Amino acid sequence: MNRYLYRGVNSDMFRSTEGRLLPKAIGVEFKRAIKYGQGFKYGEITYGSSVKNAIMAHQKDSSTFPSSGVSTTPVFENAKAYALHNGVYTSGYVFKIDAELLKTVGVMAYDISETAPAPAISEDKEIILVAKDFGVLPTEIVIEIIEV
């Protein structure tokens, strides 16, 4: 895994979260059961509730399948594009995260490329971060917030 990960958020989201890295589902264990008809192929998921299913669902569409994970990328320019929503916003913020600090505060990192046979957005090289309490990511992992 790269030393630095990035998370881009638009200015509205930055204000509404008070500059914190919040998952869409706070306090929910990072596991998911997938049902027939939710758009997954045989072999991509497991039977029952699992972390693998949570990873697959999160990377496919975290709005449809909210989780306690927060998407990041080692590619700064991709995080910047998410922060600005490709021009929809004139300003945003990119969180620079030191991946070497994750274990010290109990944050799990899930590399999409190790689980998804065909990641939804492969160029992001997405890493999902999950706090040990399935809540807000600890501020200690953020070493810089860059206004873009």
Secondary-structure-derived class? alpha+beta
Distance between the termini: 24 Å
Percentage beta strand: 15-25%
Strand line-up of the largest beta sheet = 1-5-8
Principal-axis shape equals globular
Q: How many strand elements?
A: 8
Stretches where pLDDT is under 50 for at least 5 consecutive residues are none
Round the Cα radius of gyration to an integer and report it: 15 Å
Mean pLDDT: 93
Largest sheet: 3 strands, antiparallel
Number of discrete helical segments: 3
Query: Portion of residues in helices?
Result: 10-25%
Number of domain units = 1
H and E order: EHEEHEHEEEE
What does this structure look like?
The protein is of the alpha+beta class and 148 residues long. The chain has one domain (4-147). The chain has helices at 11-16, 51-60, 76-84; strands at 4-10, 32-33, 49-50, 69-72, 92-98, 108-111, 127-130, 142-147.
Descriptive keywords:
single chain, 148 residues, alpha+beta, 3-stranded antiparallel β-sheet, 3 helices, 8 strands, 24% strand, globular
Outline of the structure:
With 148 residues, this protein is α+β, with helices and mostly antiparallel strands. It has one domain (4-147).
Question: How would you summarize the topology of this molecule?
Answer:
Blueprint: E1 4-10, H1 11-16, E2 32-33, E3 49-50, H2 51-60, E4 69-72, H3 76-84, E5 92-98, E6 108-111, E7 127-130, E8 142-147
Antiparallel strand pairs: 1-5, 2-3, 4-7, 5-8, 6-7
